[in-house]
Amino acid sequence: MKRSRTATAVTSLLVAGLVGLTGCQKPLVGAAPAQTSPPAAGQDAVSGSAGAALNRLPVRAAGTMSGYNRLAFGAAWTDDVDDVDGHNGCDTRDDILALYLTRITYRSGHCIVASGTLHDPYTGRTIDFVRGPKSTVIQIDHVVALGNAWTSGASRLTATQRKDLAEDPLELLPVDGPTNEAKGDGDASQWLPPQAGYHCSYVARQIAVKTKYHLSVTAPERSAMQHVLTTCPKQGLPVEPR
């Protein structure tokens, strides 16, 4: 893979994505400094604890799914995005697999992940990945489901902003495929990972994505997030590595 994926970036994302496997009391790595004015959607806007960031999110009823489809967020796994691995010649799915899997082998070059091992944050299982007919044993989850993003404000974003959201490493995790399918478009009031030890990290990551892209939460969703965060009041927010 193109060496713009620095060791620092890989380490930061691994810590941010997997810290919940050992308990949710430890804050995720790297809270960004406070900003004095709201940035445009898609720029980092996270600081302090996850609970404080949650309190700053607007609370609104879920919008309509009218007009939603996957292509509203651009072509899946495009490399044409402005993030840490954008324009590196590799598609986003392989970028994310390379960030999280261990014991990786590549097919015909430096991009296509042929095999590897995932320590799944959602179930706690160790899953072997081999590209081929059973590749879907591992799927790339949009932590804030795209349907949920659409009804919480993404419908009002520009096409470019929606594309960046859907391909943002902050928004993406490789996880157990059947578990991802069970999640569907559920928010935190409707679905949480089976592994309770990852709930704090999962909710914090959703809050970070919704903060970054100026999305809202529903009242039940906010209550569910607050309930999770009562078990980890010092939970921090993950930040995409630079």
From TrEMBL:
GO terms for molecular function: endonuclease activity. Residues 91-226 form the GmrSD restriction endonucleases C-terminal domain. InterPro entries: GmrSD_C. It holds the Pfam family GmrSD_C. PROSITE patterns: PROKAR_LIPOPROTEIN (PS51257). Keywords: Endonuclease, Hydrolase, Nuclease. This is HNH endonuclease family protein. It comes from Streptacidiphilus cavernicola.
